[in-house]
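Before the break, one more example. Copy the sequence into your notebook; we will annotate it together after we see the structure.
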Amino acid sequence: MLSLDELARQYFVYEKSDTSDFQRKARILQSRWREEQNYKIGEHRGKKRGNYLLMPWAKETLSNYLSDTIKQVVRDEVINNPDVEKLYCKPRIFNNLLSSQPLCFNLFAELKADLQMASKVFNALSPDRIEKVTKIEFEYSPGRSDLKYTGDRSASDVYVEFLSDSGKKGFIGIEVKYHENLQNKPAEMRQRYFEIASQMGCFKKNAMEQLQQKPLEQIWRDHMLAGSILQADDFDDGFFVFLYPEDNNHCNEAIKNYRNCLTDSKTFEAWVVEDVVAAIQQFTQDKWIYSLYDRYLNFDKLQKTDQK
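Here is what the structure looks like once it is written out:
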């Protein structure tokens, strides 16, 4: 049996920057999926990278996406959408198999196209709050740089509006992670953040310094975007969801520490991708959701890998 390092080199995904076995496995899994689809290897910064597709072929075919419906949503949202406020990272949204933006579409675009199924799925995930989903958007902000909200360029990876069983109007702002280790440089602090944090009333006073540092800072800002929407707009309910694979230990540890910074969690939830996939599988047997599991979460098959 090959070691993870040997396997990563075999699949052209060895990166010194990886700080966990999960990150290495995620890269290998994406490269293996590419090979299983017979897609040619792409390049990044002049070198072959197994988790990349060739450009411009990747954009032309949208082969990073798992169904015709998902591809059409990507065309509508990313290629043909004139909304310059939606900040999609190009070309990685087309050619980077590891990127979390394609995962957002692969996981939620079919639900955007079928709100009846979306309602069933989100009701299964949050039965006490969600009865009917009325809207799903990607890379959504109600107003980038608007001081009515956080005053920065933050957006929800996925944004969901819903009605409760009593007809109350609510929303979810979802941040999606896959292999990330949450070690990005913190954003410059703004006075507006502290105003929102105080208004939300769910943060421990002695945790404010910790919330401004990685790995919690991005979670905090995304949570506050949801908090600002709840305060400023016409909603009866609203919350932020941090969504990640259950074996991503960086995210697990960050969420544990983040919960310790809260006095209550009414506006915050952490979900794992596995649970969302399982909820979807309750209501559809379509190929795309099983393809998604195999591509992003089926790490067991790496244990069976020996040598080519």
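The longest strand covers residues 132-140. Strands lie at 41-44, 47-53, 132-140, 156-163, 169-176, 237-244, 268-272. Try to locate both features in your own notes.
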